[in-house]
Amino acid sequence: MAAAEPASGPAVSSDQGVPLGHVGTLWRYPVKSMLGEAIGPVAIGEAGLDGDRRLGVVDSGTGMVASAKRPHRWRRLLLLRSETAGPDVIRIHFPDGLSALSTDDHIDKLLSEFLGEEVELRSQVPAAAGGGEEAEEGAAIQQRVAHFNGALPDADPVSAAR
C-alpha cells in the first residue's frame, strides 16, 4: 500500500498508553508501479487510501498488468511519477520534464514509446491470461480496482481510463 516515513513529534498511543508510532509523511501511488506523491489528510476506505493505485499500465498484447516486480521488462516504470491532478485525473511526469494527463488522447502512445512496449493506461484491467503468479496478480488488481471504482469484481473488466 502506501509508504510512510518516520518523523519526530507526538506519537499515537494505544488504549494502554503505550506509544505505537507516528507517521511523518504519507505517500500515495495513483498508477501501479510508478513513483507517487506525498499527501496530507486522505480518506481511507475498504480499498485503502483514496486515489491509491487507481490506474495501471496494461500490456496491449498480453493483457497483463505491467509491474515493477518484473524489473527486467518494466524497470522504466520507476522513472515515471504520477500524481492526482483533479477528480478522476492523474498527471504522469516523464524524466525529460514532459507531463501528460490520464485523460489526454495520446497518453497510451506516450507511455508505449517511453516503455518500448505497446501499453494502455487502464482504470480496470483485464483478467490475466494463463496461470501462475501473473494471473493471480492480474486478478487481484482487477478486483481491487473494480472494488475501488464501486463496480463488482465480475463487471466488464476492460474499460479505458479516459
What are the key terms here?
162 residues, alpha+beta, three-stranded antiparallel beta sheet, 3 helices, 19% helix, elongated, disordered C terminus
Low-confidence stretches: 128-134, 151-162
The outline comes out as elongated
Average pLDDT, to the nearest integer?
78
Could you give a short account of the major beta sheet? Answer: 3 strands, antiparallel
Q: Helix content range of the residues, please? A: 10-25%
Question: Could you characterize the architecture of this molecule?
Answer:
This protein starts with a strand and ends with a strand. The protein has one domain. The protein has helices at residues 71-74, 107-115, 132-148; strands at 4-5, 12-13, 19-21, 25-28, 37-39, 44-45, 48-49, 56-59, 81-86, 89-93, 99-101, 119-124, 159-160. It is 19% helix and 27% strand. The longest helix is centred in the C-terminal third of the chain and has 17 residues, at 132-148. The radius of gyration is 17 Å and the shape is elongated. The strands form five sheets. Strands 1-4-5 form a three-stranded antiparallel beta sheet, with no helix packed on it. With 162 residues, the protein is α+β, with helices and mostly antiparallel strands. Strand 9 and strand 10 form a beta hairpin.
Short description:
The protein is an alpha+beta fold and 162 residues long. It has helices at 71-74, 107-115, 132-148; strands at residues 4-5, 12-13, 19-21, 25-28, 37-39, 44-45, 48-49, 56-59, 81-86, 89-93, 99-101, 119-124, 159-160.
